[in-house]
C-alpha cells in the first residue's frame, strides 16, 4: 500500500512543479498591450470594442464581440477586422487508383488568420473599387504574397481556394449591411470569432466614407491569447524544451507504472 501511494504523491508533485515552472503573468501582457489614450470627443468618428482581450481556455467554443461607435458627420461606415498574417499551403488533389493524392500545391504568405467586413451598405455603393482595393476591403481585394518561383496559369483558382477554405472554417466573414445604426449617429456591429480563431494581435479598422472619400478612420487593437494552465505549459515547453521533455518522460513513465500496478491488482 505504501509503494503506490508514494508513486501517486510523486506524480502529483511533478504535475505541480510543471505548472509552477510554466506560470506566466498573462494579465501583465494584456495590460502592456492595452490601447493608449482616449479619442477626442469632438472627432467625427469615435469607436470602441466591448472587450480588447479574448482569452482562449480549454473550454473555449468561440465568442462574439460588439463594436460600437458614433459619427458626427453623415456617411456610411465600414468595419474591417484583420487577424495576424499567416502562411497557407493550398493543395490540389486528384483521385488515382481509388486514392486521393496531392498533384499540385502552392504557398501564399500575408494571408489574414481572421478577416471580417461589416458595412452599413453594399461596398460598391459606399466606395469606388480603387479605394476598396487600396484598403483591402473585401476578401477579393486581399493581397496574398505568392511564395513560389513561377506562378501557374491558374494561380487565381488557388487564391480563391484559400478564401473558400477560410470562409468554410468561419475565419473569413462578410456581413454586408450588417452594421446597425441605432439613430442618426450611434451604430453597432457584432463580430463572431469561432473556436479555431488564431491567437495574436488583431486590428479593428473603422472607416467613415462619404462621396467616395474617407471622412474619418480609426484603428482599435484587439488581442486574442491563450490563458490558463494550457498556455503556461505551452510557454514553458518553448522556453525550457529540455526540462519540459524530461518532465514529460518522467510523467509518462510514472503513469504507465501506476496503470500496470492497478491492472496487476485487478
Task: Explain what you see.
The chain is of the alpha+beta class and 266 residues long. The chain has two domains: 1-32 and 228-266; 43-226, Sandwich (Immunoglobulin-like), CATH 2.60.40.1930. It has helices at residues 2-22, 26-32, 123-126, 129-135, 155-168, 229-239, 241-265; strands spanning 45-49, 53-56, 63-71, 76-82, 85-96, 99-112, 115-119, 145-146, 172-176, 180-181, 186-193, 200-210, 213-226. The strands form three sheets. It has a six-stranded mixed beta sheet with strand order 2-13-12-4-7-9. Helix 1 crosses helix 6, helix 1 (2-22) runs antiparallel to helix 7 (241-265) and helix 6 crosses helix 7 (241-265). The two termini are 14 Å apart.
Secondary structure elements and pairings:
Blueprint lengths: L1 H21 L3 H7 L12 E5 L3 E4 L6 E9 L4 E7 L2 E12 L2 E14 L2 E5 L3 H4 L2 H7 L9 E2 L8 H14 L3 E5 L3 E2 L4 E8 L6 E11 L2 E14 L2 H11 L1 H25 L1
Parallel strand pairs: 2-13, 7-9
Antiparallel strand pairs: 1-3, 3-11, 4-7, 4-12, 5-6, 6-8, 10-11, 12-13
Helix pairs in contact: 1-6, 1-7, 6-7
In short:
The protein is of the alpha+beta class. It is built from seven helices and 13 strands.
Strand order of the largest sheet: 2-13-12-4-7-9
Total of domains = 2
**What is the helix/strand order?**
HHEEEEEEEHHEHEEEEEHH
CATH topology of the largest domain: the name is: Immunoglobulin-like
Amino acid at each position: 500500500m505504501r509503494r503506490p501511494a508514494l508513486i501517486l504523491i510523486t506524480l502529483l508533485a511533478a504535475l505541480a512543479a510543471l505548472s509552477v515552472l510554466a506560470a506566466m503573468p498573462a494579465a501583465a501582457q494584456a495590460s502592456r498591450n492595452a490601447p493608449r489614450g482616449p479619442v477626442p470627443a469632438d472627432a467625427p468618428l469615435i469607436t470602441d470594442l466591448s472587450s480588447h482581450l479574448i482569452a482562449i481556455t480549454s473550454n473555449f467554443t468561440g465568442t462574439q464581440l460588439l463594436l460600437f461607435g458614433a459619427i458626427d458627420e453623415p456617411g456610411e461606415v465600414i468595419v474591417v477586422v484583420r487577424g495576424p498574417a499567416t502562411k497557407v499551403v493550398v493543395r490540389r488533389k486528384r483521385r488515382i487508383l481509388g486514392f486521393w493524392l496531392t498533384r499540385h500545391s502552392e504557398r501564399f504568405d500575408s494571408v489574414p488568420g481572421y478577416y471580417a467586413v461589416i458595412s452599413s451598405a453594399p461596398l460598391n455603393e459606399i466606395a469606388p473599387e480603387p479605394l476598396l482595393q487600396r484598403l483591402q476591403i473585401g476578401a477579393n481585394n486581399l493581397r496574398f504574397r505568392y511564395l513560389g518561383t513561377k506562378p501557374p496559369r491558374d494561380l487565381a483558382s488557388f487564391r480563391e481556394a484559400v478564401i473558400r477554405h477560410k470562409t468554410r472554417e468561419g475565419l473569413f466573414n462578410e456581413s454586408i449591411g450588417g452594421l446597425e445604426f441605432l439613430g442618426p449617429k450611434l451604430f453597432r456591429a457584432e463580430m463572431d470569432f469561432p473556436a479555431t480563431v488564431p491567437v495574436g494581435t488583431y486590428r479593428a479598422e473603422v472607416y467613415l466614407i462619404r462621396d467616395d472619400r474617407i471622412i474619418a478612420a480609426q484603428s482599435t487593437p484587439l488581442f486574442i491569447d491563450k490563458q490558463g494552465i494550457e498556455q503556461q505549459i505551452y510557454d514553458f515547453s518553448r522556453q525550457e524544451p529540455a526540462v519540459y521533455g524530461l518532465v514529460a518522460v518522467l510523467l509518462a513513465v510514472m503513469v504507465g507504472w501506476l496503470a500496470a500496478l492497478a491492472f496487476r491488482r485487478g
